Amino acid sequence: MASINLIDAFQEFKDTENLDRPTLMKVVEDVFKTLLRKKYGSDENFDVIVNAEKGDLEIIRRRMIVEDGEVNDPLAEISYSEAVKIEPDFEVGEELYEEVDMLDFGRRAILAAKQTLASRINDLKKNILVKKYSDRIGEIISADVHQVWKKEVLLMDEEGNELILPKSEQIPQDFFRKGETVRAVVARVDLKNNSPVIILSRTSPLFLAKLLEIEVPEIFDGLISIKKIVREPGERAKVAVESYDDRIDPVGACVGMKGSRIHGIVRELKNENIDVINYTNNIQLLIQRSLTPAKISFMNIDSEKKQADVYLKADQVSLAIGRRGVNIKLASELTGYTLDVFREDEEKTDEFDIDLEEFSDEIEPWVIEAFKKVGCDTARSVLNLSNDELERRTDLEKETIEEVRQILQAEFDNE
User: Fold this and answer.
1) Which residue range(s) make up the domain with 18?
2) Does any domain span residue 297?
3) What is the pTM of this model?
4) What digits encode the pLDDT tens for the residues 55-80?
5) What is the CATH number of the domain that holds 272?
């Protein structure tokens, strides 16, 4: 019927792939049965037929033909004299099928039905989107950058759904351009103004766990288990792994031949240092492994207070603490123990030092190597010498030395 073309809301959504077609048809049927109940008081003798391919529908009214004067229920029955006006060949006892003209409902009722239909279908789409991504929480997805804002990045998945990557869930070194593809883990599904908001994350430990699962078949197959991951996004991460097969070295499997497996993950995480360690129930051994790359001399553990005093040689203290205290912070999170670092045979260190390797993202490797060749392998060992002395010993340019000293001094000033 021509008037059915007014149902633009159905036409608009009929080709939407992620809507279940039977469910969509049921929604349309419900909306128009509500319209029938409002007009006739009942929808029992009406059939709403939805044509999903054409995007239109028909409403058929069924009534039994009875003798004139014997109509008891006008909704279910029609007199013979009225029936033959519609079709002369009808006889008493037959069922009359009549198409209802949408215009009989009135334009105001039709408009209300269209608005209700559009609202119901939008709700349906929202529910499908919520379910889809609620089931994918913890999974890695790829999406294209659609818009970059100061506090968040808007991405679009392959179906055109909007995804949000907040600044707080981005690695500090992340830089996005419109159109590029970004990988992230589905963190959660929020509701904002009754609309679903899909939140992604690149800083979550789950992101690193899933990257490892992709790169390391033994993890995917369940031969190696990730016991715990702690991260300082963009700087350092520690991963405790355990093997269920004595023939498999879990650390070696995760790192790969010459670091082949871990390198791709490091690049994805913007050169985040990843320490993979063997998990153990022996807390002393776990603490020792968690403080890698530092080598511990000995330690005193208080299991009740979950605290450990760790003693190291002087040249290992800076490695244990790490730049901005990141290494010891992550070790504490991984083990669940409060760790205090002491120099071997000395009181707790009054001032910490930082290994030069920790500045590899700001200082060229060959410059660091030049300092190390003359015995300056920590930040304070460089700062304790004058510019002239460093220039004489290392043969580095004066400008280079001054730049390095500024970087190192700024680190201590920040502390």
Assistant:
1) 2-130
2) no
3) 0.65
4) 567 788 788 888 887 878 777 788 88
5) 3.30.300.20
